[in-house]
Design brief:
The chain is built from four helices and six strands. The protein is about 20% helix and about 25% strand. The chain has helices at about 1-5, 20-30, 40-50, 125; strands at about 70, 85-90, 95-105, 105-115, 130-140, 145.
Length: about 150
């Protein structure tokens, strides 16, 4: 989580999924400047923190980060370093992801990229923002979580 905390405040250069840090996140999963990067930064953080023991999928596709995860509505719990997914009805799928920092009864703290500094679950601000932020979200806004560390 220390590596994730150090990313807080990273911002895109022009708001077009670009800039040195963002392009490094994208390159870590084989994507290019301009591609969405919320999933890519999760992989990059795992690689920087754990090297070859990185458990996160080498993917920029947000649904991959919660594949075989647990639905929060069914009582799932999470711990720091678990991934989360936010469901977008307009997409019919999880379309944003990041890392859990804290998981409480009513809210949780997340660390996530390609987002804005507001917690507007399901809005375009969640998946088209310009930076990496630490947010407090209502637990009900989280669709699913996945434990990659303990498995």
């Amino acid at each position: 989580m220390a590596v994730a905390e150090k990313q807080v405040g990273v911002r895109e250069l022009t708001g077009q999924n670009d800039g040195p840090e963002v392009e490094a996140y994208l390159a870590s999963v084989g994507l290019r400047k301009g591609d969405p990067w919320c999933g890519a930064v999760v992989f990059w953080i795992g690689r920087e923190a754990l090297g070859p023991l990185n458990p996160y999928p080498r993917s920029g596709w947000s649904p991959d980060m919660v594949v075989n995860g647990e639905l929060v509505s069914e009582g799932a719990t999470a711990q720091p370093g678990d991934t989360f997914g936010i469901w977008f009805p307009s997409k019919g799928r999880v379309a944003h992801t990041g890392l859990i920092g804290e998981f409480g009864r009513g809210s949780c703290v997340t660390l996530e990229g390609n987002t804005s500094d507001v917690a507007a679950a399901g809005s375009s601000q969640d998946r088209e923002g310009g930076g990496f932020f630490k947010k407090r979200r209502l637990r009900v806004s989280i669709h699913s979580v996945r434990d990659w560390i303990s498995r």
